[in-house]
Amino acid sequence: MFYENLKTIALQVSILYIIAGVGFVADKTGIFPQKSAKKVIDLLFNIILPVAIIHTFMNMEYTEEHIKGLFIAFACAAATHAFGIIIAAVFFRKRYSRLERGIYRYATVLSNAAFLALPLAQSVIGNEGVFYCAVYVGMFNIIAFTYGIHEISGHKAKIDLKKIILNPGSISVIIGIPLFLLQIKVPYIIDYPMQLVGSINSPLAMIVFGTFLANSNFKNIIIKKELYLISFLRLIVIPLCMMGVFRLCGVHGDLLVAMIISSAAPTATNTAMYAAKYDNDAALGSEIAAQSSVLSVLSMPIIVAIASVI
Questions:
Q1: pLDDT digit string, tens, across residues 92-108
Q2: How far is Cα 13 from Cα 302, in angstroms, rounded to an integer?
């Protein structure tokens, strides 16, 4: 069973990274450079991803298991980020500058949940995977706009509490939950366009992701020892520890797999973007995200396969 799941998950991860390869080639040939991809990120984050999440909530069957799973997913997502914050604080202390420490902590705690975990969950589990991963994305946004910007700015940025709620990821979950609970059905003329728009989230996100890989300094990716520590914490320590905690708490099945996919995803691609926005080292952020992404091709199939059989 483990090896069958490993093969299935490895295939799905490989497919996603082949799509990322399209973005890599498109950037290198000048057809779709990273400069253009950054504009597409706004489209993904503000429209396509929220539509995909809302559509999934609208079409999720109302069952006692899903109601219970919704609350458990919130608890799991909060626990994973809290554990990541503790781990990051332990490993990245005063030996690093405040800005350097901030980017290392951000990269350790925050995973690429929206642009990699959510597409992978859809491929491996289906709509139920998106349903649970959407909750993780909502928690991701809360942490990113509070702890995340505080750390990556070197403690200079003021935390905007409005952004905790008033961001596309959180708003889509806030809209989606009542639609799910009330089982509101929209006409086909609205539902089908939402389905089509949401369906391009996975391939477009991976193509954009490929352009970031294309602009990474692969020499630094290989020689910087701190990057290996971050990748080890992000890809191995956090998901394995949380997997043990979740199983002890009775979490299992598709919910467990969705949470582990989210927690085992590589460093968030927006690490570089937020580093640039808050006058930190954007190149370093890109290198961290690139290395953990490359290594996740090997780590994620194994970690997720374990979660699917325990």
A1: 988 889 999 999 999 99
A2: 11
User: What pLDDT, on the 0 to 100 scale, is given for residue 190?
Assistant: 94
pLDDT at residue number 215: 81
Burial environment of residue 287 by CB neighbours within 10 A (0 to 12, 13 to 18, 19 or more): buried
**pLDDT (0 to 100) of residue 238:** 98
pLDDT of residue 39: 83
Q: Closest Cα to residue 88, out of 60, 109, 62?
A: 109
CA distance from start to end of the chain: 11
Question: What's the pLDDT score for residue 110?
Answer: 96
CB-based contact 286:161 (threshold 8 Å):
no
pLDDT for 231 equals 96
**Which residues contact residue 224 at a Cβ distance below 8 angstroms, ignoring those fewer than 6 apart?**
287
What residue ranges of the chain have pLDDT lower than 70? none
Q: 32 near 207, Cβ under 8 Å?
A: yes
Asked if residues 122 and 106 have their Cβ atoms less than 8 Å apart, the reply is no
Residues with Cβ within 8 Å of 51's Cβ and at least 6 positions away in sequence, in order, are 172, 194, 197, 198
Pairwise CA distance, residues 42 & 23, whole Å: 17
For Cα atoms 117, 66, 76, give the angle at the middle one, nearest 5 degrees: 50
Q: Count the Cβ atoms, other than its own, within 10 Å of residue 131.
A: 27
User: Residue 221 has what pLDDT?
Assistant: 84
Reported pTM: 0.90
**CB under 8 Å, gap of 24 or more: what pairs does 20-25 form?**
20/206, 20/207, 20/209, 20/210, 20/213, 21/210, 22/206, 22/207, 22/210, 23/206, 23/207, 23/208, 23/209, 23/210, 23/211, 23/213, 23/214, 24/210, 24/211, 24/213, 24/214, 25/210
Contact 307, 5 (CB under 8 A): no
